[in-house]
Design a protein that fits this description.
This protein is α+β, with helices and mostly antiparallel strands and 206 residues long. 54% of the residues lie in helices and 16% in strands. The chain has 5 helices and 4 strands. The chain has helices at residues 2-20, 25-85, 88-96, 98-107, 174-185, and strands at 129-136, 141-149, 155-164, 198-202. Helix 3 packs across helix 4.
């Protein structure tokens, strides 16, 4: 009996000793490595989420600036027709080449129909969005083209194309328009096709 009690006390001391000694170095290293891998995965997910959120915000700003600019251009087109309605001499000049006249007025800062190029958020001069205005006399259209670099990683260049029909053409004499049509039908040099509405160039898979 005495021997059994001694053995029981010895086992009890060893058990208490093992409990008090804590973790071994191997256990600490394994636990630390597992924790590091978990945190690295969490950090990667958070970084990707922040990048996607930033790209979405940039796209919204660019698209909003382009849409606002398009609205201003449509308003300028209508305003120009109203201005020409009370100016017969200028109307005659405008009817000579309506598409070119509209394009020039949109880009002329001294014109009442002038519309500045769109600015992305925080810009003082156009950088993120490149706006160009072309004419297609054969179709009687003025084209406004917006180009910008997609903020997402897999998108390179995008563009938006807006076809404008000069509103003041309704006020032009038919004889002058017929003469203009005959001139352009023999010398058609459209600078861009009018069927394109938007294009996107991708670096990888879109």
């Amino acid at each position: 009996m005495t021997s059994f009690l001694r053995q029981f006390k010895s086992n009890n001391r060893n058990s208490i000793s093992r409990k008090n000694r804590g973790f071994t170095l191997t256990e600490v290293l394994v636990s630390g490595g597992m924790f590091s891998m978990v945190m690295a995965g969490v950090a990667q997910i958070m970084t990707g989420s922040l990048a996607a959120s930033s790209a979405t915000a940039q796209r919204q700003q660019i698209e909003s600036a382009i849409n606002n600019n398009i609205q201003y251009i449509h308003q300028a087109n209508i305003q120009l027709a109203e201005e020409l309605n009370s100016n017969a001499a200028l109307l005659t000049e405008a009817c000579t080449d309506p598409t070119v006249f509209l394009a020039d007025e949109l880009e002329d800062p001294s014109s009442p129909a002038y519309v500045a190029a769109p600015l992305a958020h925080g810009e003082s001069s156009p950088q993120a969005i490149n706006r160009s205005i072309y004419v297609d006399p054969s179709l009687g259209l003025t084209q406004v083209v917006y180009q910008f670099e997609g903020p997402e990683q897999n998108v390179e260049t995008e563009q938006r194309v807006v076809d404008l029909f000069p509103q003041f053409i309704a006020q032009c004499p038919l004889s002058q328009l017929s003469r203009e049509t005959d001139d352009t039908s023999t010398n058609i040099t459209p600078s861009r096709p009018s069927t394109t509405t938007s294009t996107t160039t991708c670096r990888g898979y879109c």
